[in-house]
Write a structure and sequence with these properties.
The structure is a single chain. The protein is of the alpha+beta class. It folds into four domains: 1-151, Beta Polymerase, domain 2 (2-Layer Sandwich); 153-238, Hydrophobic Seed Protein; 255-418; 425-477, no CATH class. Helices cover 52% and strands 9% of the residues. β12 and β13 form a beta hairpin. α7 (161-167) crosses α9 (188-197), α8 runs parallel beside α10 and α15 crosses α21.
C-alpha cells in the first residue's frame, strides 16, 4: 500500500479557492471539508471537474459566508442543503451535513440535516467516496477505510450494501460505472446485494439510469462495467437486449459467443477513437454504444439451417429497431437515437465487398447512406472483426482499406460527402411547371438515384433525364405546360 500523501503535497494539487473558502467558513465559526469524488480523484492523481464541500453550516449560513465572495449563486438545491456558486472559473457546491432516510417505495430521499462529518460520510455510496479532507489543515477523515479500498481497487459500501442499495438503488448502477471508469472490482458482499436487489432499479427514473449508462459506456474500462451489469441481473432491467446476447451455445459450437464478441467489438471500437481534433473524438458514446448493440438483433433472427450452419438474416434491421426502442425508453435525445440505430443498421453493409467488389454507384450509396456517420461506420466495421483466423482478419482489413481508398478517389472527383441531384427542387419545379408537393419529392428522389448510379451529369443531360422520367408519370398529362429551360 502506498503512503498517504503529505498535506503539503495535497495543498499543491488544490486550487487556491479551496483555502480561500475555508478561511471564510472558519472566520464565521463553521467547519468545512472537501469531500467525496474530489478527494478520491486527488489520491488517484486525477484532476476532478468538481469541487464538493460539506459543512455544519445551514444553507442560510453558507449564503452568508460566501456573500461578496461568489460571482454567481444557484439555490436550486437549497431544500437538500446544497448551495452552488461560481468563483472565477471554479464551480463549487457546499452541502450541509446530512443524515438521509428513504421511503422504500420512493426514489426521493427524506432530508434531515446533521451535525457530524462522520455521520455525513456514512450516508455516502461507497467507502472510496466517503473520505473527506478537513480544511484548512487537510486532515484526512476516513472512517470506513476508503483509502485502503482505493489502493486495493475494490468497491465497498460504508454500511451494509443491502441498506445502501435499498436507500438509493441507482448506487448499483454507479458501482458498475466506477468499475468502468476506475478499473476497480466490487466486493463480494456488494456483488451479492446487487444480484439480490436488482429489481429495485425499476423505481429509478429512466433519465437517471441513462446518465449512469452513458458514463459507464464512456469509461476507460467499459467492458468491465457492462459485464457487471449483466452478471448481477441489472442489465435484465435496464439493457435486456445485451443480456439476451448470451445465446445458448449449441452442442456443435456452430456460432461464436455473441455476447463476448460484442464486448470485444466495444473495446476495439473505443481503441479506434481519435483525439479531440480527429473525426471521432473519444470517448464517443455513439460509437461505443453502437458497437455494444450492433448484434442485438441476432437472438430474434437466429436460425439453424438444414446444412448445419447458423444464420441471422436481417439481424441488422431488427437490431436497429430494437436499439431505437431501448434508447427511447431510456429517454435519449433523438439525434443520439438516430445515430446509433443507423450505425447498427449499416454495420453489415460492407460484408461482401471483398468477394464481389462494388461499382462506383455502390460506393456512392455507402457514403450517402452513412452521411455524417461515415467515419463512425469505418471504425465500427473494422471493430466488428474479432476472428482468431489471422488470414481472414487480414483479408477483411485489406478489403476495407481498399474501400476507403475507393471513397477517397471518388471524393477527389465528386462532392461525395454531400451527394445532391444535379437539379435541385426549384429547378425541377421550373422545368416541369409544377408546384411544391409530393411529385417534386418523387422527381428529386429519381434524380438523386441517377446521381448515385452515374455520378455527376452535365446540365443538359440532367434536364433530358428529368423530362424522360416526367413523360412516364401520370401527372404529366394534367400539369400545365412547362416554360423552364
Amino acid at each position: 500500500m502506498h503512503q498517504l500523501p503529505e498535506p503539503a503535497a495535497l495543498r499543491e494539487s488544490l486550487p487556491a479557492v479551496v483555502f480561500d473558502l475555508a478561511d471564510r467558513f472558519s472566520a464565521a465559526g463553521f467547519e468545512l471539508s472537501l469531500v467525496g469524488g474530489p478527494v478520491r480523484d486527488l489520491f488517484l492523481g486525477r484532476v476532478s471537474p468538481d469541487l464538493d464541500f460539506t459543512t455544519d453550516a445551514t444553507p442560510e449560513q453558507t449564503l452568508a459566508a460566501i456573500d461578496g465572495f461568489a460571482d454567481a449563486v444557484w439555490e436550486v438545491g437549497r431544500e437538500f442543503g446544497t448551495i452552488a456558486f461560481r468563483v472565477g472559473r471554479d464551480t463549487i457546491e457546499v452541502t450541509t451535513y446530512r443524515a438521509e432516510a428513504y421511503d422504500p417505495a420512493s426514489r426521493k430521499p427524506i432530508v434531515a440535516f446533521g451535525t457530524s462529518l462522520e455521520d455525513d460520510l456514512f450516508r455516502r455510496d461507497f467507502s472510496m467516496n466517503a473520505m473527506a479532507l478537513r480544511l484548512p489543515k487537510l486532515e484526512l477523515v476516513d472512517p470506513f477505510g476508503g483509502y485502503t479500498d482505493l489502493e486495493a481497487g475494490v468497491i465497498r459500501t460504508p454500511g451494509a450494501p443491502s441498506s445502501s442499495f435499498s436507500d438509493d438503488p441507482l448506487r448499483m448502477m454507479r458501482a458498475a460505472r466506477f468499475a468502468s471508469q476506475l478499473g476497480v472490482d466490487v466486493h463480494d458482499d456488494v456483488r451479492t446485494a446487487m444480484v439480490d436487489m436488482a429489481e429495485r432499479i425499476s423505481i429509478i427514473s429512466a433519465e437517471r439510469v441513462r446518465d449512469e449508462l452513458v458514463k459507464l459506456i464512456c469509461g476507460a474500462h467499459p467492458r468491465a462495467g457492462v459485464d457487471l451489469l449483466v452478471e448481477t441481473g441489472l442489465a435484465d432491467r435496464v439493457l435486456p437486449e445485451v443480456s439476451a446476447l448470451q445465446l445458448e451455445t449449441d452442442e456443435h459450437h456452430r456460432h461464436k459467443d455473441v455476447y463476448q464478441h460484442s464486448l470485444q467489438v466495444l473495446e476495439q471500437a473505443a481503441g479506434l477513437e481519435t483525439d479531440a481534433d480527429g473525426p471521432v473524438p473519444g470517448p464517443s458514446f455513439v460509437l461505443r454504444f453502437a458497437a455494444l448493440m450492433h448484434d442485438v438483433g441476432k437472438p430474434a433472427t437466429r436460425r439453424f439451417e438444414p446444412s448445419g450452419s447458423v444464420s441471422f438474416r436481417h439481424h441488422d434491421v431488427v437490431g436497429s429497431k430494437l436499439v431505437k426502442k431501448r434508447m427511447r425508453a431510456l429517454r435519449f435525445d433523438n439525434d443520439s437515437i438516430k445515430a446509433v440505430a443507423r450505425l447498427v443498421e449499416l454495420h453489415m453493409r460492407f460484408y461482401g465487398y471483398g468477394e464481389a467488389g462494388w461499382s462506383d454507384s455502390a460506393v456512392r450509396r455507402y457514403v450517402n447512406d452513412a452521411g455524417d456517420l461515415l467515419e463512425f461506420l469505418h471504425r465500427l466495421t473494422r471493430s466488428d472483426v474479432t476472428t482468431r483466423n489471422r488470414r481472414k482478419a487480414e483479408r477483411l482489413a485489406h478489403a476495407y482499406d481498399d474501400l476507403e481508398r475507393r471513397i477517397e478517389q471518388l471524393a477527389e472527383q465528386e462532392e461525395l460527402a454531400s451527394v445532391r441531384p444535379d437539379l435541385d427542387g426549384k429547378a425541377i419545379m421550373d422545368l416541369l411547371g409544377i408546384r411544391p408537393g409530393p411529385v417534386v419529392g418523387r422527381a428529386y428522389k429519381h434524380m438523386l438515384e441517377l446521381r448515385l448510379d452515374n455520378g455527376p451529369m452535365e446540365h443538359d443531360d440532367a434536364v433530358a433525364a428529368l423530362r424522360a422520367w416526367w413523360a412516364s408519370q401520370p401527372e404529366s398529362t394534367t400539369a400545365p405546360a412547362a416554360t423552364g429551360d
